[in-house]
Structures are given as structure tokens and as C-alpha cells.
Known about the structure:
Bound molecules: nicotinamide-adenine-dinucleotide
Strand content: 15-25%
Number of strands: 19
Radius of gyration: 22 Å
CATH class of the largest domain: Alpha Beta
Number of domains: 2
Structural class: alpha/beta
Strand order of the largest sheet: 11-10-9-12-13-15-14
CATH superfamily of the largest domain: NAD(P)-binding Rossmann-like Domain
Oligomer: single chain
Number of helices: 12
Shape: globular
Low-confidence stretches: none
Distance between the termini: 34 Å
Mean pLDDT: 95
CATH topology of the largest domain: Rossmann fold
Amino acid sequence: MRIVALRERxxxxxxxxxxxxxxxxxxxxGAKVAVExxxxxxxxxxxxxxxxxxxxxxxxxxxxxxxxxxxxVQAPDVDLLGGAKPGAWVAATFDPFQQRDRVExxxxxxxxxxSMEFMPRITRAQSMDVLSSQANLAGYKAVIAAADQxxxxxxxxxxxxGTVQAARCFVMGxxxxxxxxxxxxxxxxxxxxxxxxxxxxxxxxxxxxxxxVFAEGLEASGDGGYAAELSDEQKAAQAELVSGxxxxxxxxxxxxxxPGRAAPRLVSDDQIATMKPGSVIFDLxxxxxxxVEGSKPDEVVERHGVSIMGFSNTPATLGPDASALFARNxxxxxxxxxxxxxxxxxxxxxxxxxxxxxxxxxxxxxxxxR
Length: 370
Ligand code: NAD
């Protein structure tokens, strides 16, 4: 069983899907591990650290030769994978709804694409869930980046020269990223409020010291812990709620996503115009179409004196930590299914069918066949 990882090719990607820690653990399971030279460089992991862990380091071609499992953060282009074994697994994020051509190409090449975004939200898969681990870091970074952009202090400061008021921070969308954003803003001393369309988040907001802000009857819980799309009436109720609240905020962090759809629009230009000059909005959904009108990936857009910002790949701004967690998610996934007799992982139906996109030359995932 040969498990390998390549250097990520996507622009701006700093992460790596295998760390010396997980290389060691795969080797302990009986696998041979190889990694492309330089794969960890942008996550502060030198080649020597992989070698010390027992992995071999070489060119992409040498590493891929005879590979059974290829690990990736973002799935590599199929053309890169020529040397892997027929039917080899590729465990990575595939962005399957947006990158349908790539999924088809994997099927045509006879590779088995395992999409880590499709990990089911069940208790036993929590430790395998890259969306959660990366969203957690992204929620943290959104607040840090917004605080840096903001020209004032976050905590209340009582000084001999007078008092500095605490910043007011509003978090929209209280999933994994939103909860971490609340916690981070609170740690920095901001007054935090938050909203979501799943009513169960109200308790979670309170438990972190935030104030829940919910509109009457605004509830849109979807399958598997995800949100559903709002009706037009609900959208209007939400817009009213936001309009009333947002004008008093200094910092707004938006994190709302709906699986398989463009991110919902939560903040309009008219609403931004009511905010105080110097306020900052961080749009964590900017790469999925954006929650905020006018937001652009990797730019600070000034509208009505308000800075609107967001990164195309927020976890990549924390390469070492994001890699450590991503790599552990992949190890937890493959090791949970390790079959000692077969000397390889054998997936069960519940998780295997959820994450497998392609098999035997075909696209097989029911979410893509609907
Ligand atoms: P997500 O990234 O899909 O969405 C972020 C948040 O935005 C969600 O809370 C969603 O309800 C909210 N949202 C969507 N549309 C909105 C709108 N119009 N207005 C306001 N908010 C809106 O969500 P997520 O972070 O992946 O997590 C969602 C839930 O799933 C959480 O409760 C999380 O704890 C749970 N979860 C469980 C597991 C597991 O058990 N293995 C894994 C991951 C997440």
C-alpha cells in the first residue's frame, strides 16, 4: 500500500495533505509513504522532516509511481496522476458541484475520487471532517483580519486619558466558522451578537457570551445540520432584521453557505450605507459568490466608508495549522477503515458511498446524479 502526497498546484495554496506526523502514522499501519519534494515548504515543513518520519521524498513522477492512494488538499488535475495505479484512490477536496469536469475526468481516467467535502455529518465522522477543521481556522482568521483592518481597538479600555469603547461585532451564520468567530471576537474583548436561520444556534451563541439576534419565524433548517434556502418572505424578514441591527455594528463577519448553491446574499449595498464610516465587513463566503454585495476575493473594497474584505482561501493564510488539521482528518478517515488482512482501507457503505464520486470509470455519487 503506497500512500503519497504531491505539492499543491493551485495558486495561493499553502497547505499540504500529509505531514510528518501523519506520514509516521501511516507507516505504522504498514503503508509506504512518499511525498513530492517541496510539498510542505509553504506550510513550514521541510523535506528533511518527512524523511525523518520515514517517508521518501522525490519528484512528482517518482512519488506517484505505483501509488494506491494520493492525498491532496485540492484535487490535482488528472494529467498529473498518470503514474498512479489503475483505480487508485484520490482523497482530497474536489469542489464537486462547481468542478464537474474534473469529476468526469477522474471517472474517465479510472481513478476513484473521494471527496472530503461530502463527509457525512455524523458523530463518528467528526474527526474526518475537513470542512469543520478548516472552517474553524477560517472563523478565527476572519476576526483577526477584520480587527487588523479596523482602525480602532476591540476591547473596552479604561485609561487615564479616558475610555475607549468596545467594538460591536455581528456574526451572520453560526456554523463552525461563525462559532469560532464569536469566540475569537469575544476573546479580543468585542461585544458580540450573532444570527442564523437554524434556531438551535441561539443557545450556542449564548454559551459563547454572544447575544442572539433572530427574526420571528425565520427558520430554515435543511438536511444533515445544513441550512436550507430561504423563501422570498423569509428573505424579506431577514433583510429587515439586518437593516435594524447592522447600522450599530463596527465589525460584521458573514459565514453563510448553502451546500451546492451560491452563498446567500445577506448584506446589501443599501444596508452598508447605514453603517458607520471605518466599520469593517469580512465576507467568509466571498469565494462562493459572497454574502455581501460588492465583496471581492483578496481585495479590500471601500463602500460608503466601510471596508469590505474576504480571502479566496482563508485556511491557506494559516498554512501550518490548516495542514496539520487537514492531514489528521485524512489520516483519521483512512485509518478508521484500515483492514489489517487486506493491508489497506476498506470503506463502509455509510461513509464510502457518501464521499465516493467516481468508481469503475463512472460518476457514482448520488448527489451528483440527482
Ligand atoms: P455551513 O458552512 O454550511 O454554513 C454556515 C452557517 O450559515 C450555518 O450555520 C448555516 O445555518 C448559516 N446560514 C445559511 N444560510 C443563512 C442565512 N440566509 N442567514 C443566516 N445564516 C445562514 O455550516 P457548517 O459550519 O458547516 O455547520 C452547520 C452545522 O453542522 C453546525 O451545527 C455544525 O456543528 C454541524 N456539523 C456537524 C458535523 C458532524 O457532526 N460531523 C460536521 C460539521 C458540521
